[in-house]
Amino acid sequence: MAAIDRPTTLLGRLIRRVRRSATELTWSILAAALALHVGMSWLALIIFGEGDIASASVFPYYYLTTATTVGYGDFSPATTGARNIAAFWIMPGAVLLFTAVIGKIIQAITDRWTKAMKGREDYSDLEGHVVVFGWQGDRTRRLMDLLLAEDEAAAKGIVLVSQVLEDNPMPDRISFIRVDALSSTGAVQRSGVAQAEVALIVGADDDTTLAAALAVGALPNPPRIIAYFQTSGPAALLRSYCPTAEAQESLSTELMARSACDPGAARLQQMMLSSLEGPTQYSFIVPEGIAATDCAKALTALKRSCNATLLGLSAKGSDDLHMNPTSDTPINAGDRLYYIAARRLEQAEIAEALG
Fold first, then answer.
1. Does the 279-354 domain belong in CATH 3.90.220.20?
2. Cβ distance 173 to 148 under 8 Å?
3. Scanning 169, 221, 256, 306, which has the fewest C-beta atoms within 10 Å of its C-beta?
4. Residue 206 and residue 305: Cα distance in Å, rounded?
5. How far apart are CA 191 and CA 238, in angstroms?
6. pLDDT tens digits, residue range 35-80?
7. Based on the number of CB atoms within 10 Å of its own CB, is 229 exposed (0-12), middle (13-18) or buried (19 or more)?
8. Angle at alpha carbon of residue 53, lines to 52 and 56, rounded to 5°
9. Does pLDDT of 252 surpass 70?
10. Mean pLDDT: which of 2-6, 49-53, 110-114, 149-153 is highest?
11. CATH for the stretch 2-117
């Protein structure tokens, strides 16, 4: 039995070795070897008088069934010389080359999946997406869940940039790149942040966050930057260098104080900002063609037509935000209005309410 199994064992080892070696071959070398073997096999069959098998309609079928070791038996060489060629040249060569091609394809698929999973992919060709710099465990995962709950952000795609993660923490939902530093040139280029719509930066500490925010802000046409800081110093420094950046400071202390005086205040803030539960805060830009109005009329119209509550506004071309504006505060096309509602309003609903 051992003598019978030995050829099979040797063939199996040979095939496994060819499969491993296939990963080191380039596609051009593999294609040249395949073309050479096919051409010589076809020529040999013609020389030995196997015109039927060597015909254009039969030879590809014969070669493939031989390479895949299917061997239906409907076509086989009739002469002794052709049989020897088939046994010692066509069959082993076709099998080895077929195995090499399959191994190359499997390796390419594995490399592509591993490349994306391990953060070695390049997303510099993306446009209009969201880039998140930094990973802080459950806090960042919560941020991802909130972003993915927004249909608009989820549709545009999210790229996570991290220097601490080894693998993509949410492989079926976001893209991922691993970098040595959040502020590195590789992080900026591979994330495609230059063409992104917004960059969210939540570094492990304020220094890391500031460095990454400044690197993004130094781009010729930077995206909208939102950076989270634990203290006010780095936040003020970022605003001085990038006036358009939104430097968010931790409000945990303020919320604790507010809840002490007004029970449930922290819970209210959480519900207003969460897109996963309850009415949520949104905003829209007043469409062009809408006649000028004021906050009292807009408040009534939005509540009556859309069950939405106006919270504040930012005038067109201004960074100033007016919360709870007075009734006679004017509203014009291009202004951004902030409101709370059960869902994001459609443009048609907004135009109908304010029109």
1. no
2. yes
3. 221
4. 44
5. 21
6. 898 889 888 888 888 878 888 888 888 888 888 877 777 788 888 8
7. buried
8. 85
9. no
10. 49-53
11. 1.10.287
